[in-house]
Amino acid sequence: MKKIIAREKLPELWAHLSEQGPLFLPIQDGPVVLFQPWFEGAEINLDAVNSAVSPKDLFLPREETFMHYRCSGKQLEMTPVEPGEPVTAFGVHPCDLKAIELLDRVFLGQEPPDALYQQRRENTTVIALSCSAADPFCFCGDFGVDPADAPGADIMAHLSDDSMLFESRTEKGAALLEQAGDLLADAPEETFSREAVQTADFNLQLEGLAENLKDRFDDPAWDQLYKSCLGCGVCTYVCPTCYCFDVEDFGHEAEGERFRCWDSCMYGHFTEMAGGHNPRPERKERVRQRFLHKLQYYPEIHDEIACVGCGRCLRSCPVNLDIVQAIKALGGEKIEKR
What we know:
Elements: E1 2-6, H1 10-20, E2 23-29, E3 32-37, E4 63-72, E5 75-80, E6 87-92, H2 94-107, H3 115-123, E7 124-129, E8 155-159, E9 163-168, H4 171-179, E10 185-186, H5 209-212, H6 221-225, H7 234-238, E11 245-251, E12 255-262, H8 283-302, H9 312-316, H10 323-329
Parallel strand pairs: 2-6, 6-7, 7-8
Antiparallel strand pairs: 1-9, 1-10, 2-3, 4-5, 4-12, 8-9, 11-12
């Protein structure tokens, strides 16, 4: 099913979708763009190449309670959190949807699957938006991501100067377009053409990289890579494929809640154990863990590198220690033949 709407009528569509449940869009928030709930008068920025932080927190929130507990004598009552309302995620770029699919393998591919993550995935309709441009930090093409298409979307959207085209990809997506009624018109057979988006070429050699890294745990490159790292963790918070979290209890012996929140392998206390031992006490070990997880450990289990080339770590790291630099330092740069 293909539908189309005039660009100036998009606010009417957003108002309609928000009546069905929470609607998240890329909203201009001061100098940055963030995925936030829609509200009347929100400054929606559909032309932004990427939000400052990925929309992964729609499925893996920065903080979430997953159980309430109450104690009375020897009786312990535990109450799980009920699923929320249906959610619409509007304007998710192909790289970010690919990242969510990589998270799916972790949270849904286990037995049993992570219940809260599964509920959010099932309750969310994803409207992906093709990219009309790339910035100097985007290199998603190296990871097989097409900026013009997101195969896993419920609806694929394409924006032009005067209209937006919607293509349903799933039954859930088709149902959403049907519910929009007269706000959407049937799209003509010939719709606006989309020019190919050229992402950055960092000359990366990714084939065989995971296998080659098995013998580079003690590579001298780590002695240089880690030195500039500040341990701030910004790379892990903006990264759409990072999923480290901590689990805490809040309350007292009679009642309280158990929650989880984002954490970072770049923090010194992340691997600290109850007895005080820490297997990664220095920044070198933590930097190595972060990059080897992306480039070797995740591929060994799931057959794909845990990066989608969104460029956020390149844009955000205050000392320019990013995954491109790590790949090249570890032998992942193409060598031109002469």
